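so my prof wants the structure for this chain in the tokens format not the other one, which i didnt know existed until like an hour ago. anyway here's the sequence
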Amino acid sequence: MTLLDPPPVAGSDASALAAALGRAEHSARIDAADAEALLGATDEALDRLLAAAARVRDAGLERIGRPGVMTYSRKVFIPLTTLCRDRCHYCVFVDTPGQLLRQRKPEYMSREQVLAVARQGQALGCKEALLTLGDRPEERWPEARAWLDRHGYGSTLEYVADMARAITAETGLLPHLNPGIMTPGELAMLRPVAPSMGVMLETTSRRLYEEPGQVHYGSPDKDPDVRLRLLDDAGAARIPFTSGILVGIGETLRDRAESLVALRDAHARHGHLQEIIVQNFRAKPRTAMQGAPDADLREYVAAVAVARLVMGPGMRIQVPPNLSDPQELDLLVRAGADDWGGVSPLTADHVNPERPWPHLDDLAAATAESGFTLRERLTAHPPYVADEWLDPAIRPATYALAGPDGLARVGADGGVVRPEPRAMVDAPARSAARAFETLLNRAASEPSTLDDAEWEALLRAEGADADALAATADDVRRYTVGEALTIVANRNVASTGFRRRRTGEPDTYDLDALAEIARDAADLGLTEICVQGLVAPSEDAESYLDIARTIKHAAPGMHLHAYRPQDVADLADRSGRGLAGALAAMRESGVDTVPGTGVKVLSERVRRLVAPGDLEIDRWRENIVAAHEAGFRSTSVLFYGHVETAAERIAHLRELADIQSRTRGFTEFVPIPLPEPLGGGVALVPGRRPLDEHRAMAAVSRLLLSGAIPHIQIPWTRHGVPTSIELLRSGGDDLGGTLLDGRVLPGAGVERGLELPLAEARRIAAGLFRPFRQRSTTYGDVGARP
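here's what i got, hopefully its the right format
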């Protein structure tokens, strides 16, 4: 199989490659020259390379009694500080103090913020807390030194140790520490609080470190000799350690080969490298390397295979699944990988924020398609879950989560085991202000412990309390889904306007016009068309399916987000298919996801008063659950500010969270203020500022749904841009859609004529000092688009 058009191979190179392949296929030791030759393999030689690597991997898994098993660690990502003394040319993780000030971010996460993320991860069954941070920021930034002094810490690494200790004591999660370069004394200080640590070697290339303009120039902690010394110090300290290489940052094939051999040599001396990560470079905006190409796929896959051959059958070879497209994962398995690394059901990859984690169910399915079973492991791999590798202080917490095979313990029902938190006693409230602060801390870290009355109290916050509520929700957003502000490039089409034959009525269209609309949307670079609304009674029920087929035929690559539960019910009833048959017909016709709209509040009392024409609540619930179970993902909404009570809002959010726990089908939640002409604009708290009404709703949505529905979408069409910006500071992370009407009418619904082009969305993100990401309908990556 040819992955990419390869360069011609010179005769001497071809001879070296053939010899190296022969040694690899006979399990001979691979030296740096062999590795260099193999890294350049293409065509048939690449196929042979992958096959050899897979055989070595399979033999290793067979030897440890784990044939056909790929592993991963269920984790939370805790970016303890984004200050750093280094200046790597590809990094978007790091901030300056000025950037932190503009983004309203602290120099370091507080203890409360750290534990808030850890507790939410614990509730989702996470076992690993990955603490990642910049190298020794206090040695470059006075602001970092001042923060540490104010809080009583001598160094950043002392704070790392304290937070790691608190995480395990309060939640049972096991810290994995990525704190940069450490001295032997610092390694000894950190060993009792973490079962494992790690630092990427990245490359042994001194050119990339010493030559001005290269990626590591000006970064003292990226000196290859310093990093290799750290690997030896960690081995001498008997610390299970993770390291690896970064492919595509300007290194040569020889550099890659020598880097892998250096890792093998370090492991041979100490036996402490529990896994080797082979990571592919991905260019990021706002960096010196933003214009550099991503790592070449052929070269990356070859690097994975060569890493396997160099490191041998006993090493775990890890590849980050979010840094490759889904269709590329099978190649990585073929190349000898056997571990996906840490994957979070809660937090973003803060180092690669533009690359979302795959859903664990999707990762399991992709793994199965490659012929493997996905199993959860701990941050320490099975051979290192042992007294000789673990400090006595961390052994009890580690052994409590380990099964007989050293992987993560599985529940009696086969389900995910949650770490056991330590009992906590809250300090008594000393004042009303203190009580509210305590309530906010609990909402951020242990939302499941709040009762309805406490959530209702948060919904009624105003003034300084509303400010604190918004800031707390924004911290939860920042440390879970991350900093990126997202939007999908889309347009709306109202199915109410469809007519099989042209009638001349305003805002109607037939199938020919619909095809024009779809082609126009594709020409504009849109990725989604949203279709909703009851088809006119004069049109037959098949119209729903004909609309879908027409859009998909005219624009085959377009994502079709179509049909509310009420529309689906109409199709089911009028076509005689029933609900299951209607959903199956929609799938066959090209519908990809469904809107979860068509309901104001999940209360029959509210429906009868505000929207008696809406679908009955029980039927809406049945319909959305059936859609999820049929494989459709959906949005979710709440229309607020009319006759509903605070209790009904909370009940609505709780029911959405309950559905999500069963189906995992909701992609986002959208709190939408009902317009005044429809009976909206009614304050929950009389006399409260309108902005506080909206901030409280957005913030409570983020806090209550955190860990369940990840994205809180701000409906900019209802609020306008200035208010939307404030709500993005109150826990929101998404602006919905661009809603471009395009050059082909008709208009669609109350949002007609309202557009938010990508350039304007980028300006909003820049004003918030947050990265911008154009997303797919289901929050995947769509790459660069105009």
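also thought this was worth mentioning. The chain is about 40% helix and 10% strand.
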